[in-house]
Design goal:
The complex is a heterodimer of chains A (176) and B (90). Chain A has helices spanning 3-12, 19-38, 41-60, 70-88, 106-122, 128-138, 144-151, 155-175. In chain A, helix 2 (19-38) packs across helix 4 (70-88), helix 4 crosses helix 7 (144-151) and helix 7 (144-151) packs across helix 8. Chain A has one domain (3-175): RNA polymerase sigma factor, region 2, helix turn helix motif (Rna Polymerase Sigma Factor, Chain: A), CATH 1.10.1740. Chain A is globular. With 176 residues, chain A is an all-alpha fold. Chain B is mostly helical. Chain B has a domain at 42-90. Chain B is rod-shaped. Chain B starts with 6 loop residues before the first helix and ends with a helix. Classes of the chains: A mainly alpha (176), B mainly alpha (90).
């Protein structure tokens, strides 16, 4: 059993401080995933923070049935949150990565920020669910079965989203 | 040129450029603060819990008040009746 599953066991047995271990073990991957879907880090951090609160609520209420791994479950909460946030288009005016204190290498952060802007502009033409599927496959390295688990849809639906997403991007490239 | 870049190559390049992304400073602390707020009972929850505990006491007090009111009403009626009776005798 890995650290994550052990931390979940501890939270389930009443040690709420063990949730910090879950955050420490997963926040980098989840913020990166959120940023790739949202197109900027500030919105991604909002989505991931909300996802952790939902996860904590579900854990303490005994609603996590452990049919999937903790990691897949957290991925699902973040992806759903990011898709909802993208759909509602409630991006705060002040939510800009200019205000994010990276706390790490400035040059790498600047490069990543530029790349996120490019991702956001490029994938803007895609509906949020297609965008999420494409990010999960091409940037997170998940296979169709794993994407289906994360998104809570069939593998066929994942395949369809990926085909449509690539067709839209190809069409966009040909038009430009 | 980016326009001529194949979709898969562009996805791979952007994936590599964002690989180093990590949470901003203090992110973990902000999350745990939000969790603590979630764990602490809200004012409404506290009030509701206290109100529920006081409910049986309030019910007993209300019942006792009704009994007392009925008894007092009976004494008043008796007193009025006896004072009318003494007025009639006079």
């Amino acid at each position: 059993m890995d650290i994550l599953e052990k931390a979940v066991d501890r939270v389930l047995s009443g040690d709420r401080s063990a949730f910090q271990q879950i955050v420490d073990a997963t926040s980098q991957k989840l913020v990166r995933l959120g940023a790739r879907i949202m197109g900027n880090q500030a919105d991604a951090e909002d989505v991931v923070q909300e996802a952790y609160v939902k996860a904590y609520r579900a854990l303490t209420a005994g609603e996590f049935d452990r049919r999937s791994s903790t990691s897949t479950w957290l991925y699902r909460i973040v992806v759903n949150g990011a898709i909802d946030a993208k759909r509602s288009r409630k991006r705060r005016a002040e939510a800009s990565d200019e205000q994010v204190d990276p706390g790490w290498d400035g040059a790498a952060f600047a490069e990543a920020r530029l790349a996120l802007t490019e991702i956001d502009d490029w994938l803007q033409a895609l509906p949020p669910d297609q965008r999420a599927a494409l990010v999960l496959q091409s940037m997170e390295g998940l296979n169709n079965s794993e994407i289906a688990q994360v998104m809570g849809v069939s593998e066929g639906a994942v395949e369809q989203r990926l085909v449509r997403a690539r067709a839209t991007l190809r069409q966009k490239r040909e038009q430009s | 040129m980016i326009e001529q870049e194949e979709t898969e190559q562009r996805l791979a390049r952007l994936s590599g450029a964002t690989d180093a992304l990590r949470p901003s400073a203090g992110f973990s602390a902000r999350v745990m603060l939000a969790i603590e707020r979630e764990a602490a009972p809200s004012f409404l929850e506290t009030t509701w819990f206290s109100a529920r505990r006081l409910l049986p006491v309030a019910a007993i007090a209300a019942a006792m008040a009704v009994v007392w009111a009925v008894q007092v009403d009976g004494y008043v009626d008796d007193e009025l009746a006896s004072s009318y009776a003494s007025m009639e005798l006079e």
